[in-house]
């Protein structure tokens, strides 16, 4: 049995037994969803369908239904893409990197964080597809044998690297997530009363028997996958950032982008986890598992990554001045003071100033405040991508081609649609999947559970 | 022996056995058991084609038929049964012809493919006006305008030509018999044979009059020159002889007397000691004024006084008699005196050109030229130009006659006076017989009794005499598309002359032209398009006298009568007088100065806009919005005129372009802009105009393709002065950026991240753009548009900055008094805040000066040898060629737009919609029109939706000529072919060729000290390069 120092706060609060955990985790699956769930689900579904309509309109009529022009060739499409990919970073970081670092507090949040990852990568993956002028030829980007002779994609193009990076990340994440789900599905299966439910969870749990051998393999696979997933946390956003960093456009052509993007991704990912979990712990009555301590830990990560992002912003400004390149200097002056100054300062306020408030213990342990900041950070990170993409493009080298960007209802509709789609998936997940990795959580009950810690304190080691 | 060869199938047949002979009688050697099978009912009913089998066959054949129907629709192309000798499919034919629409004259070559004219190109062998402007380039589309009238009409009913003509003849006869006047109202006619026909026509009537009418009249100028030349014509200007040109309101590079002087002008713009100097004194920033070395702003009412002051000052210097003192503010007088001094110094090598249609101004200008001794040097009084014939007095008396009911018959031809002439429409009712020879039911024809459709010029014969020593012919290049007749033939019919105009013209040529110029043969002139003939002008010694004192007081009166605001009417470089107002190419062509397309508008200065609170402003998508106002000139008003702020506009003046605001021209041109002719009377300006009824908000959207107008102190158009160019080392005024490397300082063409492409072997296509020769006229833009089937996207899309032009002409204004001062301002910036801070400084640089220096820069794909677009395309749809070109494989493109984002020059154009199918574009995109699509160049693909496109340096021409050279077994010669833009450029600003050919012009251009690459420091290594712009700031 792992020993944990008594001064550490318990990770599971209350007088819990193994059975209590099982019951608490299975409750949302085994009970009918409340009215509030249906309301939120309906709203999300309507948004999703509206988004589908906008996407079909785009594909049917042309990219011209968006607000783009000859100068600004990407705007909300790639902004949304990068935003969603960034959000998708927290899950893998929590489940893989924190696993390798043996951070036990990840156990009650990694399942949902990873679900969030997968659902947001799905949203992200939509955009490179629908932003194409000819989506029906999207298979051209895959290096598949074809009848065109030896015609391959262009391996120099960062957009092609994106294809590989995103698809690898998505597949590894989904496998990792699923492997973790197997013992929990088995637990649901064992508790299920209705034959259909039982059958479904039986299939999903891949015949898990809970034997020692099973557990051993489970541990090994988890570790291997964590090892595989860890570099991906760094690589995906690095490669996404190269879409910009390898270009020649002032404001894009920046070597700081890979670390800056990765930090930003983790930053926004944790903010999204906060947004989701603060609501979920309340609705699903999981305050005992997702404690203030968890929230605080995540707030600290948000504070640290937010500071890294802030340093990156300031470094960009410094390098622009230091480089002596007039175009570069103007690009950054224009960001801060040009027509899109409001986007830049929204970004600065949301991403640099607001996380600094987390230095205050009182604020970072306040749920209301955390929820508020998590929304602010997500808005800020959306603006960061908008600032990078649109304000760099709209005024580049030749003033004759300078332009502006204004979204159409289709741009907005597709973005709202992906938010709807994301919540549709997440809400379905919340009612059908065990939202906490209960099998894993049980391993720390006796070392980090509040009652056991108390017992330990009272009775010593026996 | 050979003839006895015998073929046989068997030995029996060879031997001729009886069996063989018997078999030979039968159709089939063996019996075919048809009867056995079909004759035997029993066997037939027992055969087992079951119901199942039947259904199987039915199913299979249905499925097979369905699958076969899945193929894309088959478009039949029918081969020639008997191929015409001249036509080989895929090979173009060229015919020399002449373009004259009453306004523009050009000697042209018409390119036809499979019998269809698809492009108009300039004629190198032209004796006069060999260049093509944007309108001439675009004219081929007017042939395929589906708004053309397709058959003769009388009173709204379609009729046959025979019926309509006999009816018209008898009605005209009746009108003549009643003693009333019969009038033929035409645009300027310069065809000697047509003039003869008109004379014959006049003989049919007792009271006949031919009235010439130009919508933008030059009548008062003609009156002045009639006094000098003894003939109603304008002189030729020899701009090539002028060291100093002073334009006073004369837009002589774009819209002036019809004589094309741009080439002669730019030939003298080559920097060096022979470079000319150009001073422009004007109200409205014109194309000509944008090219000037020095530009002085004056009010429209001051043009006369400016000329008067020039006259007086020069007279003072030369010891001549001065006229009444000019009524001008002192500071303007000082500036004008400076100009006068320069003119006096230039001696007989100067030229003063006056704009407007004003007797006093033209008389003063002529007087100055005469005083300076320019007659015979820069003003050629021996070869008059006949391109302007309009007579204001005759037109005025016609309208008076119409209103008083004295005109019994009125025939119009090639004019639309109900649109362009005030008072005309009201007079129509009182005219007995009205017949319009027209190409469409326009504003005039719709009010007329007879509408007689005439051929397009590409369907017509014709002869022209633009000057006294040039004769040119026009020939049809296609049979008339509709049931139309040549205008001359209609007049011949009315005049009772039998036969075709073609025959008449040949007869005229033999009888009259060959008489005067025996060395000409019909075939030679037809082949060459034009020929020089012995000068027909006989200098008249008995010159009239011009009352210069009256001119002086008229000039001063203008200033006295000036109101708070004045108005100046001008012609847009693209639209001109609006003869092709339904031509979407001309609408889509942005105005070279304002960069606004699909519109005309009142231009005002920033100061006036602020005073009246009617400034234009860009909205959140970067499109300009403006207020609309009502303009009032005298008792005429024009509602809903949008207001656009124009740098370079003199405060207190309004500029308004004519040619817009048509209501009955066709789907593309209807209701585009407002009709400025409604405010005009004779002259091109009015000294008093009122702005009223300002709209409550910015309710007018402009389709302006340029949002930012200044260069922000960047080295985009490299510029220097002639003095510096001649004296300083090239590195001082054309600095090559150098990079620090471990091998020492290196130029951007040497520093490489990638392996270089091999550019030594084979061709290496390069292009040079001489910024000193580019006057910004836009002919190349239109030429590129039609050569490459570039879609027309319409006002709304242009407004969204989605214009598709592969070649654009960027126009920059300086923010300070010159571009050099802009650059200096950036260099002097220090820190963010404060007086020299960059925060405020760049904001100031975004604003154009009130009298800016202007620079034009044509930009198309730069064909970078290290192209940023190529590396980022995920599918390799844009790749580099061995010949220095950046290719675009449309079929491979999936439309990520990454290439466009990464292009520093922003020359890539994306197909946002299906322009050739989407209904929103049906009204103006030629490829959606049943007739318009015939103009498409068959050598160039029409691009699909979702595909990126851009300049290919006319790859179709390169390939064609490479193949031709290969067939001929000899290398491509320099100048054997060129791109559409270079060909259309009337000033020779664009040089295209193979730099691996060291004898080529482009090789020489590349090694010129003025050559530089745009944004060289990025290391893109473009194949296109520019020649530094040099201004002549040295006062003569």
UniProtKB/TrEMBL annotation, chain A:
The keyword ATP-binding does not apply. Keywords: Cell membrane, Membrane, Transmembrane, Transmembrane helix. The chain crosses the membrane at residues 37-61, 81-101, 113-139, 159-181, 221-240, 260-279, 300-322, 342-360, 367-389, 409-430. It is found in: Cell membrane. It comes from the Bacteria. One of its GO terms (cellular component) is plasma membrane. The keyword Phosphoprotein does not apply. It holds the Pfam family NrfD. It is a multi-pass membrane protein. Belongs to the NrfD family. This is Hydrogenase. It comes from Phaeocystidibacter luteus. The lineage of its organism: Bacteria, Pseudomonadati, Bacteroidota, Flavobacteriia, Flavobacteriales.
TrEMBL record, chain B:
It comes from the Bacteria. It holds the Pfam family Fer4_7. Residues 765-795, 852-883, 884-913 form the 4Fe-4S ferredoxin-type domain. InterPro entries: 4Fe4S_Fe-S-bd, TAT_signal, TAT_var_transloc_signal_dom. This is 4Fe-4S dicluster domain-containing protein. It comes from Phaeocystidibacter luteus.
């Amino acid at each position: 049995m792992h020993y944990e120092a008594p001064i550490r706060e318990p990770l599971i609060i209350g007088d819990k037994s193994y059975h209590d955990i099982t019951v608490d985790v299975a409750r949302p699956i085994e009970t009918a969803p409340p009215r509030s769930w249906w309301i939120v689900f309906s709203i999300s579904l309507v948004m999703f369908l509206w988004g589908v309509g906008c996407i079909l309109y785009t594909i049917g009529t042309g990219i011209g239904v968006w607000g783009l022009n000859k100068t600004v060739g990407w705007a909300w499409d790639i902004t949304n893409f990068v935003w969603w990919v960034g959000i998708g970073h927290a899950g893998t970081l929590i489940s893989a990197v924190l696993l390798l670092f043996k951070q036990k507090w990840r156990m009650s949040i990694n399942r949902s964080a990873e679900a969030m990852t997968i659902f947001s990568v799905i949203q992200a993956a939509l955009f490179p597809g629908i932003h194409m002028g000819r989506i029906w030829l999207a298979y051209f980007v895959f290096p598949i044998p074809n009848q065109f002779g030896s015609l391959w994609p262009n391996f120099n193009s960062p957009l092609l690297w994106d294809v590989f990076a995103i698809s690898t990340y998505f597949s590894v994440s989904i496998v990792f997530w699923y492997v973790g789900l197997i013992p929990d599905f088995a637990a649901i299966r064992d508790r299920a009363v209705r034959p259909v439910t039982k059958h479904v969870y039986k299939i999903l749990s891949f015949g898990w028997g809970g034997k020692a051998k099973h557990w051993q393999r489970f541990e090994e696979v988890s570790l291997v996958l964590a090892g595989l997933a860890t570099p991906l946390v760094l690589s995906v956003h690095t490669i996404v950032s190269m879409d910009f960093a390898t270009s020649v456009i002032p404001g894009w052509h920046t070597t700081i982008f890979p670390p800056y993007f990765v930090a930003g991704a983790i930053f926004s990912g944790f903010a999204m986890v906060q947004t989701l979990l603060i609501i979920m712990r309340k609705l699903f009555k999981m305050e005992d598992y997702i404690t203030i301590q968890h929230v605080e830990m995540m707030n600290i990560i948000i504070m640290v990554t937010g500071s890294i992002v802030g340093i990156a912003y300031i470094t960009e400004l410094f390098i622009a001045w230091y480089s002596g390149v007039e175009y570069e200097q103007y690009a950054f002056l224009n960001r801060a003071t040009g027509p899109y100054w409001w986007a830049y300062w929204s970004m600065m306020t949301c991403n640099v100033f607001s996380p600094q408030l987390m230095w205050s213990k009182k604020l970072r342990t306040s749920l209301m405040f955390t929820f508020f900041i998590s929304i602010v950070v997500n808005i800020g990170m959306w603006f960061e991508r908008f600032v990078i993409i649109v304000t760099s493009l709209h005024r580049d080298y030749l003033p004759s081609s300078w332009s502006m960007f204004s979204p159409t209802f289709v741009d907005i509709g597709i973005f709202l649609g992906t938010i709807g789609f994301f919540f549709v998936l997440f809400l379905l997940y919340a009612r059908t999947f065990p939202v906490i990795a209960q099998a894993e959580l049980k391993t720390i009950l006796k070392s980090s559970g509040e009652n056991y810690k108390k017992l330990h304190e009272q009775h010593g080691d026996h | 022996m050979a003839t006895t060869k015998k073929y046989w199938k068997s030995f029996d047949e060879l031997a001729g056995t009886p069996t063989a002979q018997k078999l030979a009688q039968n159709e089939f050697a063996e019996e075919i058991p048809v009867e056995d099978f079909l004759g035997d009912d029993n066997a037939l009913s027992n055969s087992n084609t079951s119901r199942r089998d039947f259904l199987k066959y039915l199913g299979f054949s249905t499925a097979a038929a369905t699958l076969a129907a899945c193929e894309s629709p088959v478009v039949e192309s029918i081969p020639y049964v008997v191929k015409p000798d001249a036509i080989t499919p895929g090979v173009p034919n060229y015919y020399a012809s002449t373009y004259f629409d009453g306004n523009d004259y050009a000697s042209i070559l018409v390119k036809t493919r499979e019998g269809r004219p698809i492009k108009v190109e300039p004629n190198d062998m032209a004796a006069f006006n060999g260049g093509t402007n944007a309108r001439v380039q675009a004219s081929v589309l007017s042939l395929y305008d589906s708004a053309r009238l397709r058959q003769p009409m009388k009173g709204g009913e379609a009729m046959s030509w025979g019926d309509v003509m006999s009816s018209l003849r008898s009605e005209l006869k009746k009108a003549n018999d009643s003693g009333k006047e019969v009038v033929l109202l035409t645009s300027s006619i310069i065809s000697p044979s047509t003039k003869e026909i008109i004379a014959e026509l006049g003989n049919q009537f007792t009271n006949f009059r031919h009235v010439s009418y130009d919508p933008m009249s030059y009548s008062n100028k003609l009156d002045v020159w009639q006094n000098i030349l003894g003939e109603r014509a304008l002189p030729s200007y020899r701009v090539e002889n002028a060291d100093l040109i002073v334009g006073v309101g004369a837009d002589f590079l774009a819209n002036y007397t019809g004589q094309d002087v741009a080439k002669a002008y730019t030939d003298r713009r080559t920097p060096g000691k022979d470079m000319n100097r150009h001073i422009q004194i004007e109200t409205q920033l014109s194309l000509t004024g944008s090219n000037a070395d020095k530009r002085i702003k004056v009010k429209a009412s001051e043009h006369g006084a400016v000329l008067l002051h020039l006259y007086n000052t020069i007279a003072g210097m030369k010891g001549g008699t001065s006229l009444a003192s000019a009524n001008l503010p002192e500071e303007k007088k000082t500036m004008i005196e400076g100009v006068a001094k320069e003119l006096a110094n230039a001696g007989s090598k100067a030229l003063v050109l006056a704009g407007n249609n004003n007797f006093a101004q033209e008389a003063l200008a002529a007087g100055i030229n005469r005083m300076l001794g320019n007659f015979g040097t820069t003003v050629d009084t021996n070869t008059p130009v006949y391109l302007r014939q309009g007579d204001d007095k005759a037109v005025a008396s016609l309208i008076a006659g119409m209103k008083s009911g004295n005109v019994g018959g009125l025939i119009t031809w090639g004019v639309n006076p109900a649109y362009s002439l005030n008072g005309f429409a009201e007079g129509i009712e009182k005219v007995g017989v009205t017949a319009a020879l027209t190409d469409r039911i326009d504003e005039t024809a719709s009010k007329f009794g007879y509408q007689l459709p005439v051929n397009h010029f590409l369907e017509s014969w014709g002869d022209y005499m633009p000057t006294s020593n040039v004769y040119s012919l026009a020939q049809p290049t296609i049979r008339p598309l509709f049931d139309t007749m040549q205008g001359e033939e209609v007049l011949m019919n009315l005049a009772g002359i039998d036969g075709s105009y073609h025959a008449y013209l040949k007869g005229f040529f033999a009888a009259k032209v060959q008489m005067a110029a025996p060395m000409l043969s019909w075939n030679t002139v037809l082949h060459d398009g034009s020929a020089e003939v012995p000068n027909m002008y006989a200098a008249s010694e008995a010159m009239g006298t011009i009352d210069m004192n009256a001119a002086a007081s008229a000039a001063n009166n203008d200033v006295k009568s000036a109101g708070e605001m004045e108005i100046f009417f001008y012609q847009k470089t693209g639209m001109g007088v609006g003869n092709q107002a339904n031509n979407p190419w001309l609408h889509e062509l942005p105005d070279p100065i304002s960069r606004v397309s699909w519109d005309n508008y009142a231009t005002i200065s920033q100061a006036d806009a602020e005073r009246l609170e009617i400034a234009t402003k860009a909205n959140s998508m970067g499109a300009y919005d403006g207020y609309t106002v009502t303009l009032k000139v005298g008792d005429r008003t024009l509602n809903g005129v949008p207001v656009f702020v124009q740098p370079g506009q003199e405060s207190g003046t309004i500029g308004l372009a004519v040619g817009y605001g048509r209501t009955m021209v066709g789907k593309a041109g209807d209701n585009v802009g407002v009709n400025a002719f409604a405010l005009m009377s004779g002259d091109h300006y009015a000294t008093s105009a009122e702005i009223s009824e300002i709209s409550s908000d910015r309710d007018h959207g402009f389709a302006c393709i340029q949002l930012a107008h200044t260069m922000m102190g960047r080295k985009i158009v490299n510029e220097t002065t002639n003095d510096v160019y001649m004296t300083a080392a090239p590195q001082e005024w054309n600095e090559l950026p150098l990079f620090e490397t471990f091998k020492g300082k290196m130029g951007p063409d040497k520093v490489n991240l990638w392996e270089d492409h091999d550019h030594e072997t084979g061709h290496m296509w390069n292009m040079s753009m001489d910024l000193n020769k580019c006057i910004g006229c836009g002919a190349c833009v239109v030429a590129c548009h039609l050569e490459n089937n570039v879609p027309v996207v319409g006002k709304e899309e242009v407004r969204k900055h989605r214009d598709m032009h592969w070649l654009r002409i960027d126009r920059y204004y300086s923010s300070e008094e010159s571009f050099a001062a802009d650059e200096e301002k950036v260099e002097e910036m220090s820190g963010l805040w404060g007086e020299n801070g960059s925060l405020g400084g760049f904001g100031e640089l975004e604003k154009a000066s009130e009298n800016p220096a202007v620079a034009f820069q044509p930009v198309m794909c730069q064909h970078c040898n290290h192209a940023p677009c190529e590396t980022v395309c995920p599918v390799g749809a844009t790749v580099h060629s061995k010949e220095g070109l950046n290719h675009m494989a449309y079929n491979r493109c999936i439309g990520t737009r990454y290439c466009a984002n990464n292009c520093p020059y922003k020359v890539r154009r994306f197909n946002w919609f299906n322009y050739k199918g989407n209904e929103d574009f049906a009204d103006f995109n030629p490829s959606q029109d049943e007739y318009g699509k015939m103009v498409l160049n068959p050598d160039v693909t029409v691009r699909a939706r979702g595909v990126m496109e851009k300049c290919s340096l006319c790859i179709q021409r390169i390939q064609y000529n490479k193949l031709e050279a290969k067939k001929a077994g000899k290398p491509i010669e320099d100048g054997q072919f060129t791109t559409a833009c270079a060909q259309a450029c009337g000033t020779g600003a664009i040089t295209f060729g193979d730099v691996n050919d060291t004898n080529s012009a482009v090789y020489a251009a590349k090694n010129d000290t003025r050559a530089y690459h745009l944004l060289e420091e990025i290391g893109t290594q473009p194949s296109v390069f520019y020649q530094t712009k040099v201004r002549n700031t040295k006062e003569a």
